[in-house]
Design a protein that fits this description.
The complex is a heterotrimer of chains A (about 300), B (about 190) and C (about 375). Chain A is built from 7 helices and 12 strands. With about 300 residues, chain A is an alpha/beta fold. Chain C is α+β, with helices and mostly antiparallel strands and about 375 residues long. In chain C, strands 1-2-3-4 form a 4-stranded antiparallel sheet. Classes of the chains: A alpha/beta (about 300), B alpha/beta (about 190), C alpha+beta (about 375).
Chain lengths: ~300, ~190, ~375
């Protein structure tokens, strides 16, 4: 029987055609060779809206194999509706096993958080990035920011940090705090909280970044210096929470602020898998960094 | 000469690519690719062919240097449909480890990725010992990693170091040996030769 | 693992999908045939193939049915569909002089070779709501067709020369030949770079969102720009498409409907006593879409002479922000949870407010 191709609904493994996978793979190699530098790529459309994770998907689908175990989180949660949609997409296009367990996963795709549990050599961590250009806030034109990166001309960025300090008494950047990678490129780490930024530094895992709408790929290899921008006398700080986690009493994780029906407020651990493990008293292995170490339990 | 049929363009390419990505992210780390049932013509390691098959297609160009270049060029074209170009313009350059560094493209400051990748065939890669000890520091390396190469012109390494002295401009190198091993030296690595 | 995490996200999105289907079919009206959409909502289909960037009217009709008529959604579906298709050829350059013309007008000249052919257009109709459409039957359509076809003449299909060829013949048209005009890019294969050559700008506009182009083209006519051209020629019809076979022979593969606009303006004069020649702002899109082609032509010219203040003359502004699929995605992405992002900023803000001497109310 001749297959009616017109209405066929069979898709290539991992949805993307092999030609585009190759392009992404080649560019990821260059991105890894030039840590923190944004490589332009064709970024074809996906059945997911632009701005909702197409870049992260491009990276995941270009590298994933049948034996991989896939985890995806949004704002730290596996249950977030968009993460669920993307998980179903990846699962249906690859047949891969999926998991909520950070330790079990081999590829983890994330929107705006790094996991509390430490990532290992054999894992790859893929960030969804809305705005890959850390200088966009101080320079609207792409052709100019590209030249600034090329010449390491970051004066405008430093001036804006200084102005923020003068205006408000501190550098007022929250999520997506700009970092310098390998002493050369200023990079946008995606809108992760400051809490997570130190975990980019000299990590064991490979970090890959996909900005689908803006069409850029970049990478931070393991054991690479990643330093938040700071002044000698105005140092980088991570978030401070007034209270510990209401459910576990734990202080050393990023917490969500919840307003309850009676108007009162409580904090709970944001990372859903970490929270599950803490609640069940399971063994966890957190990232270790100097900022976390300062927190007294 | 024919296109290799015992090669899965979807799953072999993906599997081999992951090994290659691991090597580029961890300079000097040696990974071993599986040995297929076929072998390319003389002058190209099977590992080099697999790297080429994983990465090349009609959107990029390549160039083969050294003896048997014509045959190997044809082989790579038949198997990948990639275009050919002069060494100064080619995206991928296949060459032998006992040749000097070619004058290949190093990218530009606004677009440093528009640079060549060399696929260099050496005799042996080892984490234990060999003729030339190469130590790497920098991104991807915890402290310092040393590995050994047989069949590499020692001048090649100092030329590579010089070529990559103006980061981000530079060239990235994939080394292959006769027993399926691969290792990478990206331009971000500092090379220390013993 | 010794636990089962109870998560509601997957259930929520499945319920939402069911609800969408419920709202689409709850009235139990007869299902719309895809053929009906393709033929009777022709101009919606044309918009979708134009903004999706895929000449596939039947798939566009399916997408419109699937998305309950939401043109952004339908164009997005078509655009995503392209990613599943293999790309085999680039076509030979289309020559619209070969167009089997259905519509051909010029505002620049009263009379042009072949005459002003209004073709199918609502330009000169009155926009009075036609409630008779409520009771339209198939028999009504057939009666109209029978009458129309029998009264139509049977002149042969003609192709026509172009108005700009007349301008060129008279030495009135500025030449094109610098890098900006001759560099060929494929924006579906590589991210656009700035400064972008004309081929990249026209490609981006060819699949841009009609309303976005319209807003910016309009701004140029109202003083927020320097381009106020005349329609040199506007055409709508079918053009043959050809590709090279593996032996290098050129083969005809079919025809597509396009709308083409050639907008006449003055070329920029930079040297003293340089002749003030005319230049063309060009627009081309799939299907019948006068608005899009005309605004493409206006913006093609406007982007050639950036004035540093008008958005219509700023290539990055025009091209990035009229890309409908990206714009829809990103503006709507604000609906995604941003509570971590927000939380990350909160502690900074609370500290800064304290430093500024104001009071925050601490709820414990």
């Amino acid at each position: 029987m001749i297959e009616n191709k017109k209405y066929s609904r069979r898709y290539n493994f991992a949805f993307i055609d092999e030609s585009t996978k190759k392009e992404i793979r080649r560019k990821l190699l260059k991105a890894v060779a030039i840590p923190g530098y944004q490589v332009p790529y064709s970024s074809p459309e996906m059945p997911i809206s632009r701005g909702w994770g197409t870049g992260g998907l491009h990276v995941t689908l270009a590298i994933i194999g049948r034996e991989d175990v896939f985890k995806i989180i949004d704002q730290g949660s596996d249950a977030s509706v968009n993460a669920c949609n993307l998980r179903e997409f990846v699962e249906s296009m690859t047949g891969c096993k999926t998991t909520y367990d950070t330790r079990e996963a081999t590829i983890i795709q994330t929107r705006h958080r790094i996991t509390e549990e430490v990532l290992e050599d054999h894992q790859i961590f893929v960030f969804q990035v809305p705005q890959p250009e850390p200088l966009r806030g101080v320079e609207r034109y792409e052709y100019k920011t590209r030249l600034m990166h090329g010449e390491a001309d970051y004066a405008k960025m430093w001036v804006s940090l200084y102005e923020s300090f003068v205006q408000h008494g501190d550098i007022m950047l929250g999520a997506g705090y700009p970092v310098k990678v390998n002493g050369r490129y200023i990079m946008a780490p995606s809108p992760i909280p400051r809490w997570d930024v130190p975990n980019l530094n000299h990590a064991r895992t490979l970090y890959l970044f996909g900005a689908g709408r803006e069409k850029r790929l970049y990478a931070v290899p393991p054991h690479t210096t990643v330093e938040p921008l700071e002044f000698e006398d105005v140092l980088f700080k991570i978030e401070k929470f007034g209270l510990p986690c209401a459910k576990t009493g734990y202080r050393k994780a990023f917490l969500d602020e919840l307003f309850l029906d009676d108007g009162s407020k409580e904090y709970v651990i944001n990372d859903s898998n970490f929270m599950d493990k803490m609640e069940l008293g399971m063994d966890v292995q957190q990232f270790v960094n100097p900022y976390l170490q300062k927190i007294v339990e | 000469m024919h296109k290799e049929t015992k090669y899965d363009e979807v799953f072999d390419a993906q599997r081999h690519y992951r090994q290659l990505l691991d090597c580029m992210a961890r300079p000097g780390k040696i990974n071993v690719l599986p040995r297929p049932e076929w072998a390319p013509p003389a002058g190209l390691h099977t590992a080099g062919a697999l790297v080429g098959f994983a990465l090349l297609n009609p959107d990029v160009s390549f160039c083969v240097l050294g003896a048997g270049a014509d045959t190997l060029t044809q082989y790579i074209q038949i198997n990948t449909a990639a275009k050919t170009d002069a060494v100064a313009l080619a995206d991928y350059i296949f060459m032998d480890g006992d040749a000097p560094m070619p004058v290949a493209k190093r990218g530009t400051l606004p677009y440093p990725e528009e640079s060549a990748t060399l696929v260099v065939a050496v005799d042996r890669l080892s984490a234990e010992g060999g003729d030339v000890a190469v130590s790497l520091t920098g991104p991807g390396v915890e402290g310092r990693r040393t590995f050994w190469i047989d069949g590499l012109d020692i001048a090649f390494l100092s030329q590579l170091r010089e070529c990559n002295a103006e980061f981000p401009l530079g060239i990235d190198v994939v080394l292959t040996d006769a027993e399926q091993r691969i290792a990478c030296i990206p331009r971000s690595s500092q090379i220390h030769i013993n | 693992m010794g636990y089962v995490a109870v998560k509601g996200g997957a259930d929520a999105i499945h319920q939402a999908q069911e609800l969408v289907e419920f709202y689409r079919v709850r009235a139990e009206t007869p299902p719309i045939a895809v053929e009906q959409i393709r033929t009777q909502l022709r101009l919606s289909v044309d918009k979708v193939i134009g903004e999706g960037g895929l000449y596939a009217p039947e798939y566009a009709a399916i997408a419109l049915k699937q998305s309950e008529g939401e043109v952004f959604e339908a164009a997005f579906i078509l655009r995503a569909f392209i990613t599943t298709l293999e790309r085999r050829h680039y076509s030979e350059t289309l020559d619209t002089r070969e167009m089997f013309v259905r519509r051909k007008i010029s505002a620049s000249f009263r009379e042009i070779p072949g005459g002003q052919v209004l073709g199918p257009t609502r330009d000169y109709t009155q926009r009075i709501l036609d409630t008779a459409k409520v009771d339209e039957t198939l028999e009504d359509m057939q009666a109209f067709l029978a009458k129309f076809v029998s009264s139509a003449g049977s002149a042969g299909i003609a192709t026509f020369g172009k108005v700009i060829d007349l301008l060129r013949r008279e030495g009135l048209l500025a030449g094109v030949g610098n890098n900006e005009d001759t560099t060929l890019k494929d924006i579906t294969r590589e991210a656009i770079r700035f400064p972008a050559p004309r081929s990249a700008r026209l490609q981006m506009m060819a699949r841009a969102e009609t309303g976005g182009l319209m807003a910016l083209g309009y701004s140029s006519l109202r003083g927020f720009g320097n381009t106020h051209p005349t329609v040199g020629e506007l055409r709508y019809g079918t053009v043959p498409v050809r590709v090279k076979d593996p032996f290098g022979r050129v083969r005809y593969i079919g025809k597509i409907e396009v709308t083409e606009a050639e907008m006449v303006t003055s070329a920029k004069v930079s040297k003293k006593r340089q002749a003030p020649l005319y230049a063309i702002g060009y627009g081309l899109c799939f299907g019948q879409n006068d608005t899009k082609a005309i605004n493409m032509g206006i913006l093609d010219r406007a982007m050639r002479s950036p004035d540093g203040k008008s958005p219509a003359t700023d290539s990055e502004f025009v091209l990035y922000h009229t890309e409908g699929v990206e714009a829809m995605g990103f503006t709507n992405h604000l609906k995604l949870p941003h509570y971590v992002t927000f939380q990350a900023g909160l502690s900074n803000v609370r500290e800064a407010i304290k430093r500024a001497g104001a009071q925050t109310v601490e709820v414990s």
